[in-house]
Amino acid sequence: MASRSIRFLVVMLGSGLVLLACSFTGRTSSPLDDQIGTSVAGTVTAALAAGGTAMATPVVERTAAPTPGPATDSSAAPRIVFTDGDRNLWADAGAEPSVQLVDSMDVDTFRLSPDGRQVVYLRSADFSEYSLWVVQTDGSGRRELISSAQLDGMTSAPEALGALPYQMEWIDAGNTLAFNTSLRFDGPGLVLQDDLWLLDIAGGAVEPLLAPGSGGQFYYSPDGAQIALVRPDSISLIDAGGGNRRDSVLTYEPVLTYSEYAFYAEPAWAPDSSYLRVVIPPPAQLDEPTPPSDLWQIPADGSAATRLTRLTPAPLVLPVLSPDGSRLAYLKRMGEVAENRYELRILEIDADVDSVYVSGGVSLGAWSPDSMGLAIYDNGASNLLVGQVGSAPLTVSDSQFPRGIRWLDAENFVFFTLSDAGWDLRQGSSAGGSRVLEGIPNGSAEYYLPQVDVRS
To answer: What does the domain layout of the chain look like in residue ranges?
Structure first.
């Protein structure tokens, strides 16, 4: 193991391994949310409804990437937004009481801007019709950005009931929202259109950067100049303006998920934006003996990808690259399948050092923004622990049955715990303590679990 000290966040849960949990990136960006969908190829067949931007052509080539807006002082802006048991939206700045931002009792998913001053949120009262809104984190300026009729005009499949934003990411210093869409049908399943749209938050203009079938799950480079586009069988690159497309810089066989969605790989950019790294599982992970997965490096200039190493992680649990792509956390099965025992291993990729951090009935979580912290779920208990490699972890106080853990920075994180009334939103630190930020009673939204988003 490398000598550098690495912080980890360890979450102890009840029995039962959480399979596939780390393969996804949720619409609210939670690292443990299900974010995988099937792809839909095709062309855009309808223009946006009245009030939207008509699509004269399905693909737009910008002359340049979005221009960053002026810097703002965000020191006093909220770092945490969350929903309550009635699907209302709140902001917590830390020093003052939480501010209710939305009281419509219909918030589905949401994203906090990088400067903490505004939140985009998806509304749906019946989980059938959706619309996209924005609100300032002081509670002012609530307005609709994309209507239900406009969203339904984005569908590429005549048999679909409509479309809704799926992956949503702030770009351009919080002036623009990039998003792709999924299709709505009667019945189960998740169908992504593999498109890409840009929404000007201030002006409200919606621009189709990539038509259905030509986009995918998207990952902007740290410098904002390039986008990695992930499909169920390939990864491509384009400039942020939509030009200089480098198709299929890596191709792979579609990976079985044994469910009603397709597998999408999850690359991580290098800090200098010069390359990406990505883990590709075998097509049939449940084969015995377990087939190996491949770790690839993809140059940003479109030249040939290089396989860095092969490893054999536990089936159906995707290894998790750190945000800077320098480390890989993965589970390796111990003993027989029925024993449900695993060892969590950390691979220092450039040093080629692979070591065991903890063993037992563990499952994976998420890296912290500085690529040093890691959330880990263990089936053997139900406490939240914070530790460092080489030393025993500390138990975070009052952390029974945690969920929704999100890192604020290298030292602090927020999470939900069960309470007698419903849920508590708590903030913990690497020193081992935690405090209640907000008590959230169970509300009228049956089976609804509160959500949280943070700015790091």
So the answer is: 1-19+317-456, 34-63+78-215
